[in-house]
Amino acid sequence: MPEQLASYVAGAWYVAPDEGTAVADAATGETVARVSSTGLDTRALVDHARTVGGPALRRLTFQERAAALKELATYLDANKAAYHELSLATGATRRDGTGDIDGGIGTVFVFSSRARRELPDGYLLTDGVVEPIGKGGTFVGRHVYTPLPGVALQVNAFNFPVWGMLEKLAPAVLAGVPTIVKPATQTAYLTAAVMRDIIASGALPEGAVQLVCGGAGDLLDHLGGEDVIAFTGSASTAAVLRGNDAVTLRAARFNAETDSLNCSILGPDAVAGTPEFDLYVKEIAREITTKAGQRCTCIRRALIPEPLLDDVIAGVRARLDKVVVGNPRNDTVTMGALVSLHQRDEVRGAAETLRRASQVVYGDPVSVDPVDADPERGAFMAPVVLLCTDSERSEPHEVEAFGPVTTLIPYGVPAEAGALAAHGGGSLVGSIVSYDPDFIRDMVVSAAPHHGRLLVLDRDCAGESTGHGTPMPQLVHGGPGRAGGGEELGGMRAVKHFMQRTALEGSPAAIAALTGTSTS
User: Do 136 and 328 form a contact (C-beta atoms < 8 A)?
Assistant: First the structure.
């Protein structure tokens, strides 16, 4: 029988007594692991974080925590070959795994590096300048940040089992707050493998991080105003968590990154033959095939000037014709499987809903011939491109097919493109592909309030651009409205999410002594 995944609780590995839920290899259908949290002591989990992990982290200065993160990232980087092999079972190609595994480890390196440059060698973080309050200068105020004395619970999605954990863990460690990791069951085996090495590294003090494989049970019953819940996943699950008493009654902080109907806008100037046109077509094809379209930042709506529509369709077709779908262990394959048969069926269902308002211009939602794999046992799906000529139909702006699916939507005048971008109800990311500064300015002004991040892609930055779908640790990741209203990453700003901002008032000498800085 395949391995029953162990949780890491209160300094020990815990294996549930039952058989748990079987998790299948996305490409072969064979069982990879079994997952269960039956019998897990959630009270012990939280108490250990608060009484052991938190105090141990807070005994370290910001600089010592940064050094611990560097040590951790170095250890994981040396062991990442094993993670890449295991990642293939999730349906991800080796290139997909690089974004998840190397991207996650790289994020820890970035947070460590930024912290060493920007955070003090102490325990208290100042914010802003000293504010004079009294007329005589003997009474002043200053804002400071201190670590929350609770725990950070991260509830993660299936699509990034490594990056999703590490991008939340790094700022929490810097803040001095212990973390409980609750990965999605479908890919928990990869998270667990990395977690075993996190513990083995000895880089973090005991209790700084714990792991729950399986259901969370009554874990939220033990959380309150000193704690943070960081969630990535569906809007429906976020709504359930947001309505929990831990949030609504006990005021636990809640951050969500959820559904997102991200758009990419092609400018009227970017006609066929221009660098921007080629960049746009390449970006669409790359976005819906990377991770088989299972990225929360994927382009779901491609907004195109009506006169350029036929050229874009032809360009996307030409690129997608080169895509090879199949078992990611085969070196010829460029797009792997969705994470599970259940997920494949959900994406197919969403694609059918989208077809009520659209026509398929490339691919087939239900037919695929994967390389080196059984199409019935593996969760494979071919790339699908839809065309919705009625831009006001609700389906493309409301239905997210979380897979290799995108919808092309033509627009008339530029103002219409800006309005359509807002129809997504709030998105993680949007992109504007153009070399016309006036068009770009108008799109940014109209689209920015509805997006957490905007990429302006043109010939000048294309060589270094990380692309539409790749959030970077230096910048904010999150978005308003449908995208969850939360915010992750963003450099040292993310560290403050796990800290309390307090206004200190007193004499200049007292404030200077507390903050270690001059008040003059």
Answer: no
Q: Is the Cα dihedral 135, 138, 144, 150 positive or negative? A: negative
Active site residue 30: no
Give the CA count within 13 Å in the CB-facing half-sphere of 158. Answer: 22
Nearest to 264 by CA among 92, 490, 461, 457: 457
From the list 213, 296, 298, 388, the catalytic residue is: 296
Determine the longest span between alpha carbons in the chain, in angstroms. Answer: 80
Residue 204: CATH number of its domain: 3.40.605.10
Identify the three-state secondary structure at position 210. Answer: strand
The span from the CA of 138 to the CA of 184, in Å, is: 54
Query: Which residues, in sequence order, are bridge partners of residue 153?
Result: 180, 229
253 and 178 fall within a common domain = yes
Tokens of 251: 């005021």
Number of folded domains that form the chain: 2
In a shared domain, residues 268 and 246: no
Residue with tokens 């912290």: 115
Q: Which residues of the chain have pLDDT under 70?
A: 1, 517-520
* pLDDT confidence of residue 490: 84
Q: So what's the pLDDT on residue 467?
A: 92
Q: Which is nearest to 160 in space by CA: 256, 295, 57?
A: 295
Q: Provide the residue type at 243 as one letter.
A: G
Q: What's the Cα-to-Cα distance from 301 to each of 297, 391, 408, 411, rounded to whole Å?
A: 11, 10, 6, 12
Angle at the Cα of 246 from the Cα atoms of 244 and 249, rounded to 5 degrees: 90
Q: 481: left (phi > 0), else alpha (psi -120 to 50), else beta?
A: left
Model pLDDT, residue 514:
86
429 part of a folded domain: yes
Which residue is listed with tokens 């997102």?
260
Contact 100, 86 (CB under 8 A): no
**How many other CB atoms are found less than 10 A from the CB of residue 322?**
9
Residue 118 maps to a domain = yes
The number of CA neighbours under 13 Å toward the Cβ of 234 is 11
Please, which residues have CB within 8 angstroms of residue 379's CB and are 6 or more apart in sequence? 26, 27, 91, 337, 338, 339, 340, 341, 343, 344
**Residue 327 is part of which domain span?**
263-473
Catalytic residue list contains 296? yes
pLDDT in tens, 118-174: 999 999 999 989 999 999 999 999 999 999 999 999 999 999 999 999 999 999 999
Q: What is the pLDDT of residue 423?
A: 93
The 10 Å Cβ neighbour count of residue 241 is 19
Q: Are 114 and 485 in contact (CB under 8 A)?
A: no
Tell me the per-residue pLDDT of 167-188, one tens digit each, with 9 for 90 and over: 999 999 999 999 999 999 999 9
Q: What interhelical angle do 62-78 and 188-201 show, nearest 10?
A: 120
Q: Are the CB atoms for 171 and 147 separated by under 8 Å?
A: no
Q: Which of 167, 257, 287, 488 is catalytic?
A: 257
pLDDT, position 517: 57
